[in-house]
């Protein structure tokens, strides 16, 4: 790591807070009583990276690997994660179901070979094969994708992220990357936008609480949008994992982001989504950046573009992305929009994204900003208390971000966010 060395009191404060949060997550909760197996039942939280046991297992696994915890809590949370039949159907992906539990196991206990691991690997392979076949059929029909086809949370980008960690030399990862290359190519769809829209223009409505506009949209965020595939393609290229057209696909996405990049008093920013009306107008309806979150804000998008610049050897693009991130984290107006401490939407996600970006940065402002963001994360870590226990939206992710900063040790848990 090349980040600025941090003052010992701050390191201690970060690890103390990480330890305190971890201590509240030593034992899994009891399984819910009753027979509610509906989709909203809390019994499914166990196999969730975002809300439940799979995510907490990663926290304890990383702490055990750095000498700050024991193995038994890891095993206990993994048992809880697999207590119910694992979902490997429509709703399954990196953050939920069989892939989430497989990812948790291989991240938390990377050298373990439990009897169930072969079956879990097979389940992930089968799901990925099924999703690739469905995507091939959709592309052949010149139809628009749903977000769940390609996004990080449930789609092929998330499955590819797991494979990048689990089987980086395997053919299946390369097939996922080849699909993402095709995703960036234009689709001659018979719809309201046709060839004006990029290949990842989704048939899903924007669903932004204000509009149910027909005609779909282009999602820009890391969690559900095109910057997730951009990050995966770039991270794979950094490891010399390449497929035909990969560099062109990265450049194609970056060029589209350039088109929608907006300039403001606190630096450049990108809109979260592009609607049909905005596509036709050639400009976004919003006039300034939204919350500076990992999932949909400037930090996640800037990290993806930084990774693209590094992968392509484009120092100008890398430095422009770093400037966007540095000016974002220095803007009190944007920081004032953060209302929770989580990885997905809040302080932990912003701080973790900055920490990993700073490790790669040419811009010295990024490593210099890490102590400031760490102090803010320590300050806000328990306010308000998240409703669930998981990694992405719960306290496990907050503790893990603090632990990473305090120890300076990268166990690559952040593969689940595609920031490294």
TrEMBL record:
Keywords: Metal-binding, Zinc. Gene3D superfamilies: 1.50.10.20. GO terms for biological process: peptide modification. Zn(2+) binds at residues 295, 344-345. Pfam families: LANC_like. The keyword Zinc applies. One of its GO terms (molecular function) is metal ion binding. It comes from the Bacteria. This is Lanthionine synthetase. It comes from Micromonospora tulbaghiae. The lineage of its organism: Bacteria, Bacillati, Actinomycetota, Actinomycetes, Micromonosporales.
């Amino acid at each position: 790591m090349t980040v600025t060395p941090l003052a010992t009191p701050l390191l201690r404060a970060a690890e103390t807070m990480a330890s305190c949060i971890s201590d509240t997550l030593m034992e899994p909760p009891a399984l819910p009583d009753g027979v509610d197996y509906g989709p909203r039942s809390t019994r499914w939280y166990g196999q969730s990276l975002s809300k439940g046991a799979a995510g907490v297992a990663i926290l304890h696994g990383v702490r055990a690997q750095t000498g700050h915890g024991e193995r038994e809590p890891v095993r206990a949370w993994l048992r809880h994660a697999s207590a119910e039949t694992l979902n490997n159907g429509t709703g399954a992906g990196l953050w939920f179901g069989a892939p989430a539990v497989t990812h948790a196991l291989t991240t938390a206990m990377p050298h373990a070979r439990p009897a169930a691991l072969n079956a879990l690997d097979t389940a992930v392979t089968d799901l990925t094969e099924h999703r690739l076949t469905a995507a091939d059929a959709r592309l052949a029909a010149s139809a628009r994708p749903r977000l769940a086809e390609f996004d990080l949370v449930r789609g092929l980008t998330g499955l590819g992220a797991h494979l990048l960690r689990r089987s980086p030399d395997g053919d299946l990862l390369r097939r996922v990357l080849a699909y993402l290359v095709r995703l960036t190519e234009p689709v001659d769809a018979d719809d309201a936008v046709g060839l004006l829209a990029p290949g990842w223009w989704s048939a899903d409505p924007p669903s932004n609480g204000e509009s149910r506009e027909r005609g779909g949209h282009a999602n820009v965020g890391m969690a559900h949008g095109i910057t997730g595939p951009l990050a995966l393609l770039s991270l794979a290229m950094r490891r010399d994992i390449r497929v035909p057209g990969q560099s062109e696909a990265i450049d194609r996405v970056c060029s589209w982001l350039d088109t929608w990049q907006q300039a403001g008093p606190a630096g450049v920013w990108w809109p979260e989504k592009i609607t049909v009306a905005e596509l036709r107008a050639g400009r976004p309806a919003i006039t300034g950046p939204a919350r500076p979150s990992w999932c949909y804000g400037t930090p996640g998008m800037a990290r993806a573009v930084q990774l693209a610049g590094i992968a392509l050897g484009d120092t100008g693009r890398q430095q422009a992305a770093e400037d966007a991130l540095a000016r974002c984290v220095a803007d009190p107006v944007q920081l004032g929009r953060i209302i929770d401490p989580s990885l997905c939407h809040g302080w932990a996600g912003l701080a973790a994204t900055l920490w990993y970006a700073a490790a790669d940065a040419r811009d010295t402002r990024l490593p210099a900003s890490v102590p400031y963001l760490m102090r803010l994360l320590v300050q806000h870590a328990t306010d308000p208390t998240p409703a669930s226990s998981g990694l992405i939206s719960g306290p496990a992710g907050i503790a893990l971000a603090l632990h990473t900063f305090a120890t300076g040790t990268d166990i690559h848990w952040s593969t689940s966010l595609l920031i490294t």
